[in-house]
Design brief:
- The complex is a heterodimer of chains A (230) and B (217).
- By secondary structure, chain A is of the alpha/beta class.
- Chain A folds into two domains: 29 residues; 191 residues, Aminopeptidase.
- Chain A has six helices and eight strands.
- In chain A, helix 4 links the parallel strand 4 and strand 5.
- In chain A, helix 2 packs across helix 6 and helix 4 packs across helix 6.
- Chain A starts with a helix and ends with a helix.
- Chain B is α+β, with helices and mostly antiparallel strands and 217 residues long.
- Chain B has a four-stranded mixed beta sheet. Chain B has a two-stranded antiparallel sheet with strand order 1-2.
- In chain B, a hairpin with a 4-residue loop joins strand 1 and strand 2.
- The longest helix of chain B has 37 residues.
- The chains are: A alpha/beta (230), B alpha+beta (217).
- At the A-B interface, strand 5 of A face helix 6 of B.
């Protein structure tokens, strides 16, 4: 019995010493998990919602999914966690898309679109008036508290795309999916690239053009991660 | 042997038939002439129901995502609702041009009606009989009822749909300054989006769509 008590005392003392030393070492230990950085990619349309019809006969839903897959691979290779709203040609309700984005508690949400209208890359943020965050936000205007951050994200995307030599148009609009997202959210719409003489130099189905856009967006999100988690 | 009085009766009846035939032919000719005369007097050009006035249109341009202010002279009715419809009709006529910078098929006939109503919040705070001077300056909500074929044939895309919505809102506000809010119906029914992107269920603030000259919305 005495041996047992002694051994118990030694074990407790040893444990306390161990805890003390661990507490002393904690600030310098590299065991702290890296900050969580999640990006939501929303490939617009899908299933019965075909989106726009592109010049080559392709549907917008197919192009957005292809872009989402390509961008997800690029971001995954750079160690960024990606959540997508769809992985196949499935019909996903706009509210469900916003739900997925909101549950992910992402640091950036991109709604991907493709259009034959206009030129270059169109970056759209919500046209809601910026407001202070509230505990319970209205579903249709939940993005209002995030508009300022969304504008900053659009600025980062704009810089990266311009650096990649693309034409960028910035604007504000009212998209049902984006207006319900509680994250920095930008709708990215890709249109054909026009030259100085207003003639098309890169069609939407040009693999090189798609790759350049995806690479520039990935670079922008990497930069955004640095800014969001210095 | 036919009796004499029957021969006489037959002759009278034959004569009467001939006279009636001639009279009918004559009446038919007169009716035909009257019909032709009526056709000739039909108007060959639409009457101008109102004097031409200068209207301000906010015309969209897809290539640089801009709304450009243009002044156009067109007959504008005195009634504000009809005036709004005429102005929007002219705007959509410009978009229906194949060489338009913002091509949208449909034209002016795509605007079925424009209803002008008091802004709901203000209307709710006013007593039912409230009247005149305040009513003439109070803000209005314009409800634009578009034709289903216009929405069905509208090019799909965030930029093009946003420009259409904003140019309609801005044009309404530029010509009817009391219009501060705009809502949309399609064939009299609410519709989620114009062509898959721009939200048509919300109330748009018209003033937000009026940019500086050539500025992006």
């Amino acid at each position: 019995m005495r041996w047992t008590n002694w051994s118990l005392a030694v074990v407790v003392a040893g444990g306390l010493c161990g805890l003390q030393s661990a507490a002393q070492q904690a600030p310098s230990a590299p065991t702290a998990p890296p900050p969580r950085f999640v990006v939501v990619l929303d490939a617009a349309h899908g299933g019965t919602d075909t989106g726009g019809r592109l010049a080559d006969g392709q549907l917008e839903k197919t192009s957005t999914l292809a872009l989402s897959v390509r961008l997800r691979s690029l971001l995954g290779a750079r160690g960024i966690q990606v959540v997508t709203t769809r992985e196949s040609d499935a019909t996903v309700d706009p509210n469900r898309r916003a739900e997925i984005a909101n549950h992910a508690q992402a640091q950036a949400c991109l709604s991907l679109h493709v259009s034959e209208s206009g030129a270059g890359i169109h970056l759209y943020t919500s046209s809601l008036t910026p407001s202070q965050p509230v505990r319970f936000a209205a579903w249709k205007t939940a993005q209002a508290a995030w508009v300022t951050r969304s504008l900053a994200l659009a600025g980062t995307l704009n810089s990266a795309l311009l650096q990649a030599g693309m034409t960028v148009t910035l604007g504000r609009t009212s998209l049902p999916v984006v207006d319900s997202m509680t994250c920095p959210a930008v709708a990215v719409e890709i249109a054909p690239e026009l030259g100085p003489d207003k003639k098309v130099v890169a069609e939407l189905d040009d693999p090189d053009y798609q790759a350049r856009v995806a690479t520039a967006l990935a670079a922008a999100l990497l930069e955004w991660r640095t800014g969001a988690h210095p | 042997m036919i009796p004499r009085h029957q021969k006489l009766l037959f002759g009278i009846l034959l004569l009467a038939s001939l006279i009636m035939g001639v009279t009918l032919w004559h009446l038919r000719e007169r009716a035909h002439q009257r019909l032709l005369a009526g056709q000739n007097s039909a108007p060959t050009s639409a009457p101008e129901v109102a004097p031409a006035e200068e209207a301000t249109l906010l015309v969209a341009n897809d290539s640089d995502n801009s709304l450009l202010t243009q002044a156009r002279s067109l007959p504008l009715p005195a009634d504000p609702g009809a005036r709004a419809r005429a102005v929007l009709g002219k705007l959509l006529d410009l978009y229906a041009d194949p060489d338009a910078a913002h091509p949208v098929p449909g034209g002016g006939a795509s605007v079925l009606q424009v209803f002008l109503l008091p802004v709901p919040e203000i209307a709710a705070t006013k007593p039912a009989g409230a009247s005149s001077p305040e009513q003439q300056t109070s803000p209005q909500l314009a409800v634009v009822n578009l034709m289903g074929s216009f929405a069905a044939n509208h090019p799909s895309g965030i930029e093009t749909e946003t420009l259409t919505v904003l140019s309609i809102c801005g044009t309404l506000h530029a010509n009817l300054p009391r219009v501060t809010q705009v809502r949309f119906l399609v064939d009299g029914q609410p519709r989620a989006t114009l062509a898959g992107h721009a939200d048509l269920t919300r109330t748009y603030l018209a003033a937000d769509a009026v940019p500086a000259e050539g500025a992006h919305p």
